[in-house]
Amino acid sequence: MTQGMLRDDALKGRTIIITGGGTGLGKAMGTYFLQLGANLVITSRKLDVLQKTASEMETATGGKVLAVQCDVRNYDEVEAMLKQSLEKFGQVDALLNNAAGNFISPTERLSANAFSTIIDIVLKGSVNCSLALGKYWIDQQIKGTILNIVTTYAFTGSAYVVPSACAKGGVLAMTRSLAVEWGRHGIRTNAIAPGPFPTKGAWERLLPGDMAAKFDFKNRVPLKRVGEHQELANLAAFLVSDFSGYINGEVITIDGGEWLQGAGQFSALEMIPGEMWDAIEKMTRSAK
Ligand code: COA
What we know:
Layout (H helix, E strand, L loop, with lengths): L14 E5 L4 H12 L3 E6 L2 H15 L3 E5 L5 H15 L4 E4 L14 H29 L4 E5 L3 H4 L5 H20 L6 E7 L5 H7 L4 H4 L14 H12 L10 E4 L3 H6 L13 H9 L3
Parallel strand pairs: 1-2, 1-4, 2-3, 4-5, 5-6, 6-7
Helix pairs in contact: 1-2, 1-9, 3-4, 4-6
Bound molecules: coenzyme A.
The site of coenzyme A has 15 residues, from α4 and α7.
């Protein structure tokens, strides 16, 4: 099993907000932050799910977790969530924009509302939270840090998830823009572009039914495996900690080499069996 990377007190006393923190990757990253001594605020639309996760996390780690219902699409709710976080913990040090919405669909089948729903959750949600936290940090002269979860198709684009690609591309632009604009306040802004890290929520929306077997994602990855949640948690913890204090405006890909394999013109040659290469070499050497 992959182990935690940072030393036990790496996030001691820091308060971190994780949007979409009740399930999946948000929950995995949050659990590790707690193990490193952080206080946590987890938010989503589903208070019952959040409360269950919060008590599970507290029991497992002995840390403090505040569960706040918040639809990140609505700026008033984001402000109220920040207020509640400050009442409970006194200060907020980091924001992890992790909440997302996505499903696969041919774009022409989407309603205008379906398209904007994804943009609203992913892009507007990340904007709303960053804006509220940025105003607060600048006003209070706190050197906060923002970590955005994007995806590798934020740089390449991807068919069949076009609203998500547009939104994540926007979040990446925001990451780099705020890194420069708010850098002078000591606020760092970075992003992680994860490849396939299986979770129930994502797999049911992106690989429903027997698609998970047919489009086995590990075959798309040079390392021939999907990611382990702790591997993502290690990177996220590093990026919200002071150990990454000079990293600003960066997007770090953690995908086992998946997107490069997809991009390389000759990557499909991996299908050629090893014993065929002798014959192929003869042909390439004899080329005139
Ligand atoms: N295919 C096509 N259209 C879809 C759809 C699908 N699978 N799922 C939802 N829609 C459409 C709806 O029909 C609606 O459009 P309409 O009003 O024109 O009919 C629009 O999208 C909004 O859907 P609704 O269910 O009202 O939105 P919501 O805010 O309750 O849910 C989702 C948002 C659809 C993204 C939902 O999947 C969700 O809540 N996801 C959160 C978790 C998540 O996606 N995580 C990311 C995992 S990778």
